[in-house]
């Protein structure tokens, strides 16, 4: 629960210090509340609570209590803490570009921390699940539609430029959220096709101290049987891997990709 509250506090800081004062509404209930705040002067926290509580009640009736008490706690806490922070904190910048960049980053960190600890902040997540239940739209598509509508509303009442900044903030926060959920420990995966698989694999094991997996394939153009090597290494080892392979077989074929999360010996432990 502490992780959920910490993430929600960080999310509130992104709203108060960057997004709300610069009229940046990156989708969701908080974005809609930002628009309403600048049009009517109703507090953002009160508006978020007014929107979220009915959604939560409907969710209990339609979906059961499976989404947990953490969602209710985070929803109420976010609404309260936003209004409190607005009374005591001033915005850190009046530049909408800086606000969308840093606001998006901090928002993504806050959301990621809350979700990784088993909570959500309710809002459009819950609305998307309800819509999915009855209209059969995917949750991801529904979230995209809701966020697009909120940004369009912001563009209509503010201006097109602020809608573009809102889109940027939404994109950044989504990427940061994905990064926090998938893990920060990115690695690289490499497929190596060579006429000297034994020499290359032995060199990788001895010089890079990385394991190598070999499996058999067939070149459909040449019709030749090939041994395909597969290896996972850190980003810092990619250059050494390429140099090592090319020094043994300059004609080797390599495909290097990104492994977003690697668990096991030599990398991160299972948690």
Describe this structure in words.
The two termini are about 20 Å apart. The chain folds into 2 domains: about 1-180, no CATH class; about 185-260, Alpha-Beta Plaits (2-Layer Sandwich), CATH 3.30.70. About 60% of the residues lie in helices and about 10% in strands. The model has no long low-confidence stretch (mean pLDDT about 85). Helix 2 runs parallel beside helix 7 (about 140-155), helix 5 (about 95-115) packs parallel to helix 8 (about 160-180) and helix 6 crosses helix 7 (about 140-155). The protein is built from 10 helices and 4 strands, in the order H-H-H-H-H-H-H-H-E-H-E-E-H-E. It is an alpha+beta fold and about 270 residues long. It is elongated. It has a 4-stranded antiparallel beta sheet with strand order 2-3-1-4, with helices on one face.
Note the topology.
Layout: H1 2-19, H2 28-40, H3 44-63, H4 69-88, H5 96-116, H6 124-135, H7 139-157, H8 160-182, E1 187-193, H9 197-208, E2 212-218, E3 225-233, H10 238-248, E4 253-259
Structural class: alpha+beta
How are the strands of the largest sheet arranged?
2-3-1-4
Structural Rg: 24 Å
Count, helices: 10
In helices, the fraction of residues equals 55-70%
Percent of residues in beta strands: 5-15%
Low-confidence stretches: none
Q: Tell me about the biggest sheet? A: 4 strands, antiparallel
On the 0 to 100 scale, the average pLDDT is 84
- Which H/E pattern describes the elements? HHHHHHHHEHEEHE
Shape: elongated
Determine the oligomeric state from the structure.
single chain
Number of domains: 2
N→C terminal distance? 18 Å
Total beta-strand segments: 4
